[in-house]
Write a structure and sequence with these properties.
mainly alpha; single chain; 8 helices; 54% helix
Length: 150
Amino acid sequence: MNSTLRRTRNSFLAYGLFSAAFYCALLPLWEGFDEFYHYGYVQRVSTTWSIPVVWQTPISRELWNSLDSAPVSHFLQPYFQRPTTKFEDYFGLPAEQRIARRQALDTIPSALQREPSSRDNYEAKQSPLSYLVLAPFDALLATASVSARV
């Protein structure tokens, strides 16, 4: 492989890694339209080392309980069918309340990663390859808070 092609390839790889890190660092937890469910898929693979089954694999209680503390997009609120806080409302809260919610989020027991919630993970229909790549990283961070892992 010539040096120009190698530099181009490395530049694209560096750009992709930088963009992914930047995206993860700047967006609030569960900001993406279905990031909650995508991460639920990764978590399921990392905790059970099995592929989720459509309409049979639930989101963990850890993730489901995170909705009590973390804000979600107003687009997602109707799909959760449970009380949640919109981003606009969350960022309008006094700093003390946001800090308390963050502390509650960061202290959700890690044992709940393995306990099922009442909510199915509709992303179970996705191809498993990318989730299999991410699962070992999630397993290594299993004792960290959900916000740190995501």
